[in-house]
Amino acid sequence: MLEPSADEIRDWGDSVTAFIIEYFGGLRDRPAYRQTSSNEIRRGLDSKLPITGTDFDELLKVFRGAIVPFSRQNAHPRMFGYVQSPGTPIGAFADLLASTLNANLTIWRSAPAPVELERVTIDWIRQILGFPVEAGGLFVSGGSMANLAALAAARQTKHDSLGRLRMYASNATHFSITKAAALLGIDRENVHQIAVDERFKMRVDDLVTKITADLKCGLVPFCVVANAGTVNTGAVDPLADVREVADRFKLWMHVDGSYGAFAVLAKSARKLFVGMERADSIALDPHKWLYLPVDVGCVIYRDPEIARAAFAHEAEYTRIIGHEADEAFAFWDYGPELSRRFRALKVWMLLKGVGLDSLGKAIENNLACARHLESMVQKSDDFEMVSPVELSIFCFRHVPVQLRKESPKTIDEFNERLLVALQRDGSSYLSNAMLGGRFALRGCVLNYRTTLRDMEILLDDLRRVAKSLPAHA
Ligand SMILES: Cc1ncc(COP(=O)(O)O)c(C=O)c1O
Fold it and tell me: Does the beta carbon of 174 lie inside 6 Å of ligand 1?
């Protein structure tokens, strides 16, 4: 088992490939989600400590029978929950190849060609975003880690030992920003929440008011975080205006583009991102809108040398001996990790294999699906939108005729029960959001398989499931 023969490897590969073909081919026939329990899953897993080995066929049997059916099917075209990428066969194969080579991308010397491939791929992302040629960055595990790395760099720009550092982000910002602040020793309370407008975008007037007030109190503003697609509604903050305020007050501007930034590839959304190219740092997630399997996030710094000041660490066991310039390069100088898997391979294979034109079209189709849903909801008399569609996220609620005269609380409770019932039904999957103190059904189209017809099926599914629910719990 540790070192199988060539024939065994071929047999394993054939079985795995057969599974992959069957899995991707049969997605629409599976429920997006299957209601289950910890007990039911545990019954299919032998939990005895394995002293002796098991055949590969047997392992694959457990994977097919006890794992696959009890997983949420993230590649399903009506899996609209959270910000979930579907994965793609090219990404799956790239992960297999990356694990086969098992490159460890710490420094150039450890993995010369994989490191160069990561640099090439990062530079493509830099060009997609319109950042200057000196900008650079690296792949990390996801958007949360990218936000953490970027804020660690931002903190290098101003120093204060009295706990007076302040940063600013809209109240619609993802929790990974406050979490990063806490991890970096900037108290959660020092992340000032900026109000949003009726489209859930940062109100720049409130940003200026809060910075000015903090300066008057002797506090030290150092960073503003803008969203290129908020997690709840997909709102893109007014990035050019935020940049102007950041310049005026000499703040670092970080953009959290984990969900939305790759939508810059879609023509119809491009204008929303004007100003993003002038950020000091940006967090992105190829494992969201580049459709890749987890895990791959990405951080880009306008001036990588500032990140170096945050991360570089001298130790004898990591001292690079006998190399110059490009070959002395170490990723650990620019991010939090030492051992790093070959994440770049799947990003490179996707970008090179699919091409930006096709990716842009796929993202454009996702936007069109969300707009189609919005338009159907607006034309209907039993659904209403809770927030406008900006990118591919849609927030809405179901208000069947018999509920129209009920209180907001009753309608919210009904929608909460409807969400659970829809998830249990399995044909479509949504998640939820709280907006303006009200419960909303929330979906995000992030799958190249999703069609306009799927959006219609989603509304049909909700109506069908709702019929079996009483108006009151
Ligand atoms: C806007 C935003 N930022 C950050 C994150 C965190 O990304 P990750 O789950 O890759 O850590 C998410 C996740 O959904 C997100 O939507």
Answer: yes
Identify which of 391, 432, 428, 435 has the alpha carbon closest to the alpha carbon of residue 414: 432
285 lines ligand 1 (CB under 6 A): yes
What does the pLDDT average to over 426-432? 98
Pairing of strands 220-227, 191-194: unpaired
Strands, sheet with 431-435, edge to edge from the N-terminal-most edge strand: 383-387, 393-398, 438-444, 431-435
Give the ligand 1 atom nearest the CA of 285: 10
Q: What is the DSSP letter of 183?
A: H
Burial class (CB in 10 A: 0-12, 13-18, 19+), 439: buried
Q: List the one residue out of 407, 375, 405 whose CA is nearest residue 389.
A: 375
The stretch 224-245 carries a mean pLDDT of: 98
Please give the number of the atom of ligand 1 that sits closest to the Cα of 295: 10
Is-contact 158 308, C-beta < 8 A?
no
> What ligand 1 atom has the least distance to the C-alpha of 231?
16
Pick the atom of ligand 1 nearest to 83's CA.
14
Q: What integer pLDDT is reported at residue 40 of this predicted model?
A: 96
Residue 462 has pLDDT above 70, yes or no: yes
pLDDT in tens, 289-329: 999 999 999 999 999 999 999 998 876 665 666 666 678 88
231 touches ligand 1 (CB under 6 Å) = yes
What is the C-alpha to C-alpha distance for residues 466 and 293, in angstroms, rounded to an integer?
33
Mutate to test the pocket of ligand 1, among 85, 285, 393 (most ligand atoms within 8 A of CB): 285
Return the higher-pLDDT residue of 321 and 179. Answer: 179
Whether 232 lines ligand 1, by a CB cut-off of 6 Å, is no
| pLDDT tens per residue across span 55-90 | 999 999 999 999 999 999 999 999 999 999 999 999
